[in-house]
Amino acid sequence: MTQQPVTRAEFTSHDPWRYRWTMLGVATFTQAASGFFVGGIGALGIHLQSALDLNTAQLGLLVSSAQLAPLVGLLVAGELLDRYGERWVVGIGAGTVGLALCTGSLAPGYATLLAVLLVVGMGYSTVQPGGSKTVASWFDASQRGFAMGIRQAGLPLGVALASAVLPYVAVEFGWRATLLTGGLVALLGAALFMGAHRRPPTPHASQPMQAAPLRARLRMLREPSTVKIMLSGISLISVQGGVGILTVLHLHRVASVGAGTAALVLVASQGAGVAGRICLAAWSDRSRSGRYAVVLVCMVAVIGGLAVLMTPAGRSPVVASGVFVWLGFFGFGWYGPWVAYVTEAAPPGKTGFALGLAMSVNQIAIVSVPPVLGLLVDLSGSFTPAWALLSLLTFAALAVTAGAELRTR
């Protein structure tokens, strides 16, 4: 499989690199479209619990089922991206997401829905590293953080739109219609990516490369930068998952906020995440302390926000809503500078594998944390243990990686 190069007209234009903004828009849309349904499950929590008679742990397991396949799938996707490039690998993956969701709209119940989301995860494994690799190849270091922030904003943007649209679809047409909606959106993203994707004008900029032996690639795990990437990624992706699955439930049960209003707060939180990914990534382009320092700031901000939720102030509708918007900005915004840091720390020719490796480690938390948080809420009857666990994970990662960052300097 080969990627389609930039056309002759684009090469001979005054500035052939202007197409990078088109590629950025396409990669961002495909990200948003592919993650539309899975990211919107949190906003459907009340509807799914009622329709399928689920407890909180079972609802968390729904999220985890879509994230299980990428544990291995991200590594495979990274290898395929380095060998064959992004166009068809991402396009086929996003298409798989769409077809699985459309098929899932016929699911008779909970068990079948779990299986459908497992297939969705297989397809989605290609989208995250593939889109990031595309953006990294089109933008140099002076703009890479900003561009990566915009591209990574695609996920919270898609989730924000899903949080606004899918609850309405569920009320009017039933929960199965939400899968069909998500599937059609994902298919649109797949078609757009395959049709619009081009390689950068410089022939060597993103040529598929021969893969190095797996043992040589796994040596990256020993690098100090890789340790920082993985510890920070696991802790902050756990917070991201917790906010996505528990925001509406916390506001509804603890702060006595109506289901519709609580869903709107989740939309606002995701919107803040969009702004955070762009602003924090742009800041990392100009930060003299480097990109990872911005990730450390996000950890500190997240710990502060979670601490407020564990106090009596977390029962106030206004305070709790404000905290979830804060957590949206920093708890989702960290991903922009983090991914830019991953691409720049990767050895030459191994960007796809490095992204796949880092993201597959994140998947451990993405798969395990939602059901664990749900179980904690079910067993304790309180959200405090869940927020405390996320705070502890983030504090531990902050302590270890901040010390490593200081020693590096």
Characterise the protein shown here.
It comes from Streptomyces finlayi. Residues 23-409 form the Major facilitator superfamily (MFS) profile domain. It is found in: Cell membrane. Keywords: Membrane, Transmembrane, Transmembrane helix. This protein has 409 residues and is mostly helical. The protein has one domain: MFS general substrate transporter like domains (Growth Hormone, Chain: A, Up-down Bundle), CATH 1.20.1250. The chain is 79% helix and 0% strand. It contains 20 helices and no strands. It has helices at residues 8-11, 19-34, 36-39, 45-52, 56-68, 70-84, 87-104, 110-124, 127-138, 141-152, 154-173, 175-196, 214-218, 224-253, 259-286, 291-309, 317-333, 335-345, 351-380, 384-408. Helix 2 (19-34) runs parallel beside helix 10 (141-152) and helix 15 runs antiparallel to helix 16. The chain is globular, with a radius of gyration of 20 Å. The termini are far apart. Mean pLDDT is 82; it is low at 8-12 and 203-211.
